[in-house]
Write a structure and sequence with these properties.
Layout: H1 3-39, E1 46-53, E2 56-63, E3 66-75, E4 78-85, E5 88-93, E6 96-98, H2 102-120, E7 130-140, E8 143-152, E9 164-170, E10 176-183, E11 189-201, E12 204-213, H3 224-229, E13 234-239, E14 242-246
Length: about 250
């Protein structure tokens, strides 16, 4: 075989492989962009809302890349106010800033960020650490869905960057009607969430979910709709943001 042809073959396969991956990524990106648009689009640029989640009061303020998340509640120590911004996290007790260990600061910041992150989905899915890929098409309860997998880079992906998410995006409306994820902390497992209802406030769609689990922690995340349709998932809780309103 001609030496030049020997060299050309792996180059051709390399090009086809990279080209396929590129197309796959571009398609996933396009679908996520449409989902963000369907859920709020430009309204995410300037948003100020409050809501109650599990008896704690939250607020979200977004201003063209700047953000401020708050959580307030009363416990045995007094009135707690947690604040998370681009500059970091702080906690106030009865109006006074208190000192926290780095471990506690990280724990409280992560829990506050988690509630606000899920409330704002799919807005965060274009963050730099997010990696998107197509799984394909799926049908659930007669509706057709684009299925997109999301993973995270270690840099900027947070403590749970090894988690894998899968989103089922309605082919007609481009809303996220279902999503699932696998996680590693506390022994690991999988979760599946189905939209219960939604409300639009400030031009942004806020969704509430029913949260399910599968008894087998190792079951593939993208197979969970099959078990959902078969009634084989166990309901764990409801993820409900109450009284969402503009500030």
């Amino acid at each position: 075989m001609n030496n030049a042809f020997r060299l050309l073959i792996p180059m051709i396969f390399c090009f086809l492989s990279v080209h396929g991956v590129s197309q796959d990524t571009d398609r996933a990106q396009g679908i996520i962009d449409k989902a963000i648009e369907a859920h709020g689009g430009d309204a995410y640029d300037n948003l100020a809302v409050s809501f109650t989640f599990r008896k704690k009061d939250y607020s979200i303020k977004l201003d063209n890349g700047a953000y401020k998340y708050t959580r307030s509640y009363t416990d045995s120590t007094g009135q707690i106010l947690d604040i998370l911004t681009n500059d970091g996290f702080e906690r106030k007790l009865d109006g006074y800033l208190i000192s926290l260990s780095e471990k506690d600061k990280k724990k409280y910041a992560n829990s506050l960020n988690s509630v606000c992150y899920f409330a704002l989905l799919p807005n965060g899915l274009n963050d730099p650490a997010v990696k998107k890929s197509m799984i394909g098409l799926n049908k659930i309860d007669g509706q057709k869905y684009h299925v997109v997998q999301v993973s995270f880079g270690e840099e900027g992906g947070g403590d749970d960057h090894e988690d894998i998410y899968v989103y089922w995006i309605n082919q007609k409306t481009y809303t996220i009607d279902f999503f699932a994820y696998s996680y590693e902390v506390n022994g690991g497992g999988v979760r599946f969430r189905a939209v219960k209802d939604h409300v639009t406030v400030g031009g942004v769609r806020f969704q509430n979910y029913i949260n399910y689990k599968h008894h087998d922690k190792s079951v593939p995340v993208d197979s969970l709709p099959f078990y959902y349709v078969q009634g084989e998932l166990k309901k764990l809780s409801e993820i409900v943001n109450e009284d969402v309103k503009k500030l």
